[in-house]
Structure formats: structure tokens, C-alpha cells
Amino acid sequence: MGMKVVERRGPKNKRSPKRRERKHSFGSVLFTLLAAVAGCGLLLSYLALFFNPTQHPVPMFFGLYYIPILLLNLLLLLIALFRHPRTLLIPVIALLPTLLLADRFVKFGREEQQLEGSHIKVLSYNLGRYDAGGKRVTATESVSGIKRYLAEQNADVVCLQEFAVKDTTTLSVYLPDYPYRARHLFKGDRYFGNLTLSKYPIREVSSLTFPDSRNLSLVTDIDVNGRTVRVYNCHLESYSLSFTSLIKRLFHKESFTDEVVQVHERVHEATRRRSAQVDALLQREAESPYPNLVCGDFNDTPVSYTYHRLTKTKKDSFVEAGKGFSGTYSVLWPMLRIDYILLPQEYTADRHQTDRIPWSDHYPVTTYIYF
């Protein structure tokens, strides 16, 4: 019998090494370009800290999108690590400054301090006029839940923003444990605005209002056992856009481009106003004869001109004494932190806490401040 010779054939569509190399080279160039663009975007977002958005709006927009740009760069870093190692340096360089900003967003492994001495517990909470940000909670349930929460926390000083009430005469029974109250409320279908509650005597009250805006800072001088502390209860300019309406508008295909332009124009205008409000607040602070506590809803992230300016001479209670994620806006938790308690450099913060409760679209922040 003759032997049958079997011819072995390779895959029919085997590509030549040159073709594979050409395809690989094109993919590398494309990835390098994407990494470079994303890296430049992240570097621009850092500049938002230092440039006034009134004169330099471009860094402001990149600072606004810092978190998604950061996540994109982290994804590109992982891809480069395993698929395009020659490009690894680009996301690494872009991400390096984030190491200096990381503790503004998240902190792990921090041990509780055992501080002693004179101190007060401070709480700041934007009530959002009892809008729970799309959660299945009624306004009545929110009011009851907020009253219970504030009573449980038993803070010495409470700064409330977007507080609303139909009858101002009911303030005395809203929280009877607080004999001292200051308010600046606007009249609409209800009275709404800022309310400061204190267990210590309030010696003087004033308001820092802003042109063409219902945002403000309520200023109270509080006597804490003979020590006067000036508390700024702030609600700075917002974008006047809910997250839900923003998504609906941007995904309306027929007018997508127009909606993007309108949204960004509104964001730019709000940011411009907020930067002017920050300058006015800092000027008022500079005239203060007392130590200043600045609390409230700044409507800006830790990568912003607002935050950078306000923390130049003050400590951030989360950076000093926080743990876990810092997010305070419930709709995009844990990505957005826009509520703060800032304290003088000579004071110390301890036990900063952000409670994820469902009564508003914001989460309250509390901290103990030691003199």
C-alpha cells in the first residue's frame, strides 16, 4: 500500500507580518492621540483652581468635568499598562497632580483624634426646599425627617440653606432646643432662604447679598462662652439646572447642539456670578474682627476657583478630619462635593461626617471644631 501524504495548510486568511504591524501601528497612534487629548483636558482642569472664570472661562469648563475626565485618564492608564506600554507616560504625567488633590475627595484609614478642650459641633445642610432629588419622599416626610435628624445631631450651631416655611411665626417651634435664631428669607409662595440656629447667644446679624441674585451669606456673631465667632452661612450661585432636566435636554436629538450651547452659557454665567460672590465674601471676611467659620452650599467642587480662593486662609473640615467619600450631592454621589465647613487655621476639626439621609438632594455635613 502506498503512503498517503497529508498536506498541512495554515489558516486561509493569515495576514502578513507587515499588515499586522501596520494595523498595530495605526492603533498605537490612535491611542496615543486619545491619551494626549485626555491628558491635556485633565491638566486644563487643574488650572481651574487658579484662573478667575470671569476672565478665563476655558479652564472653568474643564474643572467642572474634572471627575469624568479623571476617570477617563484612569481607564487609559490601565489600557496603556497592558496594551500600549510605550504610551504609559502620558496618563501618568496627567494624573500626578491628582495625588495632591485626592484627599479633597476621598480619605481612607484615618484614625479618630482624641482632642480635648473648648469646642462646638457645627452642622451645615442645604434642605433644597424639601426636594429629595427624585427620591420617593414627600415634602411632608422630608420636613419631619429633617426635624428628627437635627434633634438627634444636637449640634451647637446649625446652618441651613434653602430653608422654606409658610409662616415665619412657626420658627420658634421648628426646633425648640435652639433659643437663638437668625434668618434671611425671601417671599415667594413660601418664605425661603438661609436660617442659622444656635445654642449660644447671637450678638449681631447681618446679610451679604449679591446683585441680581437670591443667593446670599447670612452672617452671625455668636458668643461661645465669652469667645465671639463669626459664622457665614452661605448659599452661592447655582446652575439652576436639575440633573434630570439636564439629561432630558441634552438628549433631545432635534436640538442637541442648541441645548449644549444653552447649558454651557448658563453654567458660565453662574460661575461668573459665583466668582464675584466669592470676592465679595472674602472682602467681608477681611474686615471681620473675629475668627470666621464659613459653612454652606458653595455649588462648586474642590477643583474650582471658588474652593481655592476660600481655602487659602482656612482649613477644610473634610480634609482635616474626614473619612471615606466626600460627596454631598445625592444625585451624583460620590462624584460631587459642593457643601463645606471651613475653619480658621488656628482651629482644629475633628469627626467630620457626611450623613446619607434621603430628605434633600444634598447630604448634611457635621464636624466638631476645637478652639
Descriptive report:
By secondary structure, this protein is an alpha+beta fold. Helix content is 37%, strand content 25%. A hairpin with a 3-residue loop joins strand 4 (180-187) and strand 5.
What's the short version?
This protein is of the alpha+beta class.
Walk me through the topology:
Layout: H1 17-47, H2 57-64, H3 66-82, H4 89-95, H5 98-101, E1 106-107, E2 119-126, H6 139-153, E3 157-165, H7 171-174, E4 180-187, E5 191-198, E6 202-209, E7 216-224, E8 227-235, H8 243-250, H9 256-286, E9 292-297, H10 305-310, E10 314-316, H11 317-321, E11 324-325, E12 339-344, E13 348-354, E14 365-370
Parallel strand pairs: 2-3, 8-9
Antiparallel strand pairs: 1-11, 2-14, 3-5, 4-5, 6-7, 7-8, 9-12, 10-12, 13-14
* Unreliable spans: none
- What's the CATH architecture of the largest domain? 4-Layer Sandwich
The number of distinct structural domains comes to 2
Number of strands: 14
- Mean pLDDT, as a whole number? 86
Beta content = 15-25%
> Helical region count?
11
Characterize the main sheet: 6 strands, mixed
Instruction: State the fourth-level CATH superfamily of the largest domain.
Output: Endonuclease/exonuclease/phosphatase
Shape assignment: globular
- According to CATH, the fold-level topology of the largest domain is Deoxyribonuclease I, Chain A
The structure class reads alpha+beta
Distance between the termini: 104 Å
